[in-house]
What does this fold into?
Amino acid sequence: MFGRERIEYKTPEQILLMRRAGLVVAGALDAVRASVRAGVSTAELDAVAASVIEGAGATPSFLGYHGYPATLCVSVNDEIVHGIPGTRVLEPGDVVSVDCGAIVDGWHGDSAFSTVVDAGPDAAAALDTQLDIQLVETTRQAMWAGIAALATGERLGDVGEAVEDVVAAAADRNGGRPLGIVEDYVGHGIGSQMHLAPDVPNFRTRERGPRLRAGLCVAIEPMLVRGDQANRELEDGWTVVTLDGSRAAHWEHTVAIHDGGIWVLTATDGGATELAARGVEVAPLG
Ligand code: MF3
Ligand code: CO
It folds into this structure.
């Protein structure tokens, strides 16, 4: 874990370009979120994101990445990540994870959210839907705890520790069994490419990882499951599903460290609200 590859540290000017990419991704995901409801196909969500990105004069980063065929990844229920948008129609109570990346002037932003498709008041009261909502919320909390650790920590390994601690503390919110952290997929450095060194694991590791310092930009992206973390890739060569069929959630933000502090590049408010709630002040650049 963490590897030994060189880290691309960014200048303040480069972080400002990444902010532009981040805001495009934030806008695309806001539009997708407003479109998520029962009866909508995952291809329709993809079209929403594609039009926002194109309208902003940016480039979708997933499309064509190692041959990936879409703008978004849309992963439903037991799909953890890399679900390909298509004819699948969302149903009430589905857990939907939407991942989006965009490029502005060669600089990348990458972000994801999960949500539960509105199931109406009766279904929403059902225990299983409540546990799905908890799954999504715990994953979101784990991501923000990881982001806060990037601001207050010393080493990149502090992020995974913070994520793991949130998941452990939520053990009572999954009907008697702990939530699983998917260890096969990790966050990553990001900048002039979508995936750069270093890895950002969502769990404790033996190595503490590189020192946190100005210019480091990372995508923090925990993936949690309600059952076992064991997973496999479908025949389409992309979609990753849980082996036990349990449901999964995924949240992600691109975050920059600079001399003044951290800035969440894919959050419209730079992360101010969520981080203030965790005792951290964000530091916008420029
Ligand atoms: N956004 C994903 C990540 O967070 C990567 C998507 S892979 C792609 O790392 F092929 F869909 F682009
Ligand atoms: Co990512």
About this structure: The chain has a mean pLDDT of 96. The two ends are 34 Å apart (CA to CA). The domain at 12-276 is CATH 3.90.230.10 (Creatine Amidinohydrolase).
